[in-house]
Amino acid sequence: MGEDTLALTPKAVARLQAATEKASRHFRSDVVTVPTQAMVQSIIEATFGDDTYDTEGDPSVSALENKIAELTGKEAALWTMSGTQGNQICLRVHLTQPPHSVLVDARSHIQSNGVYLTLEDVQRNMIPEGNIHHAETRVVCLENTLAGTILPLEEAKKISEFVRSYSVPAGTNPVVMHPDGARIFDAAAAEGGSLKECTACFDSVSICLAKGLGAPMGSIIAGTKAFIERARYFKKMFGGAIRQSGMMAAAALAAMKITLPKLKTIHSLTYNISTKLEALGYKLALPAQTNMIALDLAAMEIPGSTFVEY
């Protein structure tokens, strides 16, 4: 087969353009994306090793994992099929001997400042060792960004310092910190810092590659070498040992190269749109800090069904 047969055909290009045009009119979520021609081309040019059975892994997957490990300042990284899978793997590695519980930022309760989880929220909700009514807290899991809002780096540091100093019985593993960093690239760009700074106070991290970055699929987790080695076992157990994952890893690398430099521009555009909406009388449920605008339909007395139809 000649190399010219691997180029994108006019039919493929037309389908990409049509899908891109359709996605550009959807504002439900940043998961509604379409790969660019460069991403599709990267799939064609990817390596096709078996990341599970090949001793050295797949070169495209290894390149992505090494890149994320470098950016986060962690020792190693592991590509996973989705953010849900990545987070579940991380929790399964962290949680060993029950009883245990995970402290998370749930939208079912109101944070003390109405936007993000604070140190006071964490202190108030930690369950100590020896509580016979509830399982003790073993993992503090934060999310950054959440509904487009940033968990400030200084607040994350305060929470980390508290968690690191949290007293546990002798012989018990310390409480650990893990963020669902599905959109943590957005958080780093908005705060003007590096990804390494945003993840430094966490033991592990999960990052989605298919949301704001626009890769076709996949997430990646990072931590110590020992953590990632254990995570590989659970990845296979959870059905994550797919074949030829190099194609998706190559697309993710292309997505990072294309999208990361544009994040600040996207945030600026989002903020400008939010201010124009407010000028028209719309109410915001949360500040537009990154790439999302959340309208407060209740405050505007607009039924959700009516808004969707409109």
Characterize the structure shown.
- With 310 residues, this protein is mainly alpha-helical.
- Helix content is 42%, strand content 10%.
- The strands form two sheets. A three-stranded antiparallel sheet has the order 1-6-5, with helices on both faces. A three-stranded parallel sheet has the order 2-3-4, sandwiched between helices.
- Helix 6 links the parallel strand 3 and strand 4 (176-180).
- It starts with 9 loop residues before the first helix and ends with a helix.
- Belongs to the threonine aldolase family.
- Keywords: Lyase, Pyridoxal phosphate.
- One of its GO terms (molecular function) is L-allo-threonine aldolase activity.
- One of its GO terms (cellular component) is cytosol.
What's the β-strand tally? 6
Order of neighbouring strands in the sheet with most strands: 1-6-5
Inertia-based shape: globular
For the sheet with most strands, the description reads: 3 strands, antiparallel
* Assembly form of the protein: single chain
Instruction: Specify Rg, calculated over alpha carbons.
Output: 21 Å
Q: Which range best describes the helical content: under 10%, 10-25%, 25-40%, 40-55%, 55-70% or over 70%?
A: 40-55%
Secondary structure category: mainly alpha
The low-pLDDT segments are: none
Order of helices and strands: HHHEHEHEHEHHEEHHHH
First CA to last CA: what distance? Answer: 51 Å
User: Strand percentage, roughly?
Assistant: 5-15%
Number of helices: 12
Mean of residue pLDDT values: 90
GO biological process, one term: L-threonine catabolic process
Domain Aromatic amino acid beta-eliminating lyase/threonine aldolase: 27-111, 114-298
Protein name: Aromatic amino acid beta-eliminating lyase/threonine aldolase domain-containing protein
Pfam family, one: Beta_elim_lyase
